[in-house]
Design brief:
The chain contains twelve helices and 16 strands. It has 377 residues and is of the alpha/beta class. The protein has a six-stranded mixed β-sheet with strand order 1-13-12-16-14-15, with helices on one face. A four-stranded antiparallel β-sheet has the order 2-7-6-3, with no helix packed on it. The chain has a four-stranded parallel β-sheet with strand order 10-9-8-11, sandwiched between helices. It is globular and about 65 Å long. The structure holds iron/sulfur cluster (SF4) (2 copies). The site of one iron/sulfur cluster has 15 residues, from α11 and α12.
Length: 377
């Protein structure tokens, strides 16, 4: 059995998590595709219009220029800038679909806007669906919040996927500590006969595909996150792409933890400018969490599908000491890798960048930096 670890968490950190909506950014930034296709400056763009294969406009407005931005985990990209006209003029005029179950598989797939999601549904769909409703990173709560706000939509989305194959069933995995989300499902679960909930322990990484499948002994199941199921629901029901997502901002460096529903392509700095007035000079920003995240400058960072949140921590100087050869970093690694090889010999080792070896090291050695090819300074 793969080792999974129970983390020490500060229970007060996300107390009073408050929700905000950031629907009217002044600008959004669209990364160029690998092979740049021309979009004319000053051209008017309609909301949800197709810009490139699989890329849609989150707002309506005019193309106003080009800017260099940053995507998690640190890739610099050139972007087209769309200046919002606040008219929200949309490309699609198709009516909402009344029924999303019972579609033919081809018709179903033609409704999916995200190319990677479509490809996975096309190639790997099986008769058992495993849906992870788990946020693995401590203090990031996007999946939990999404489920509580859209419980029925998620159940309808699962039902629509199940209707593609006879005798199929779905299992939603939830942490047994997430009582609010469990309650949200319990109120409507009886309406869906082929969907059940399984509770799992609050262990780090348990929501990730290989770990969850092993833990529940469902190695053949087709895995989706609840956010992906919700996206499928929006694609099918509203016949449009999902161009917004939840971002958690938390940590001991901010006055209030927030969960923000925001458009894709927005600069993270504009969220901070709107919601946080405090001086954050002496803080470190952990993009996508304290464990598997990376420290980045937020100035040009964009909200993308891969961005889950920012944990803002007051800087505490932890001085690294010499390795005491305790071996804890090796024994905690969930994929049985050896971070010491990267640290001591500069050898590239297999790594899923979970951060557990850095978390456990009694000498505060930033092993993750060596694992990502940095020199650790
Ligand atoms: S960060 Fe990499 S080496 Fe360290 S515990 Fe995680 S998977 Fe193993
Ligand atoms: S956990 Fe830290 S101190 Fe222990 S062996 Fe690994 S690097 Fe050395």
């Amino acid at each position: 059995m793969t080792k999974l670890v129970r983390l020490d968490k500060d229970k007060l950190m996300n107390q009073n998590l408050e929700k905000k909506e950031f629907n009217t950014p002044d600008f959004v930034y669209i990364p160029f595709p690998p092979k740049k296709e021309d979009l004319k400056k000053e051209a008017h763009i309609k909301k949800e219009s197709l810009l490139y294969p699989g890329v849609y406009a989150p707002i309506s407005g005019k193309l106003s220029g080009i800017d260099q931005c940053l995507l998690f985990p640190g890739k610099r990209v050139n972007c087209f800038v769309i200046q919002n006209d606040y008219e929200e003029k949309s490309e699609s005029t198709k009516p909402i679909r009344k029924k999303i179950t019972g579609l033919e598989k081809r018709e179903f797939l033609d409704c999916i806007f995200d190319l990677d999601l479509k490809n996975r549904l096309e190639k790997n769909l099986s008769s058992t669906l495993l849906i992870s409703g788990i946020d693995d990173e401590p203090y990031i709560e996007n999946e939990a919040f999404l489920q509580r706000e859209n419980t029925k939509a998620i159940m309808d989305g699962i039902d629509a996927i199940l209707s593609l194959q006879q005798n199929s069933k779905a299992i939603i995995a939830l942490k047994n500590t997430d009582s609010k989300t469990i309650l949200a499902y319990q109120n409507i679960l009886g309406m869906y006969k082929n969907i059940e909930i399984k509770f799992v322990d609050d262990l780090y990484l348990i929501g990730k595909e290989p770990f969850l499948k092993k833990y529940l002994k469902l190695t053949e199941a087709f895995y989706l996150k609840t956010s992906e199921v919700y996206e499928i629901y929006v694609n099918l029901k509203k016949r449009k792409p999902l161009l917004e997502k939840y971002i958690t901002i938390s940590g001991n460096g901010v006055s209030k933890p927030l969960i923000i529903k925001t458009k894709l392509g927005v600069k993270v700095s504009s969220l901070f400018n709107k919601y946080y007035l405090e001086d954050l000079m002496d803080c470190a920003f952990y993009v996508n969490g304290l464990m598997g995240g990376v420290q980045l400058n937020l100035n040009q960072l964009l909200v993308s599908k891969d961005l889950e949140g920012i944990i803002v921590m007051k800087r505490v100087k932890k001085v690294s000491k010499a390795c005491v050869k305790c071996g804890k970093c090796i024994s905690i690694c969930p994929i049985h890798s050896n971070p010491m090889l990267a640290y001591k010999l500069g050898i590239k080792v297999e790594c899923i960048h979970c951060g557990l070896c850095t978390y456990i090291c009694p000498s505060y050695i930033p092993l993750q930096k060596y694992l990502s090819g940095d020199d650790g300074e």
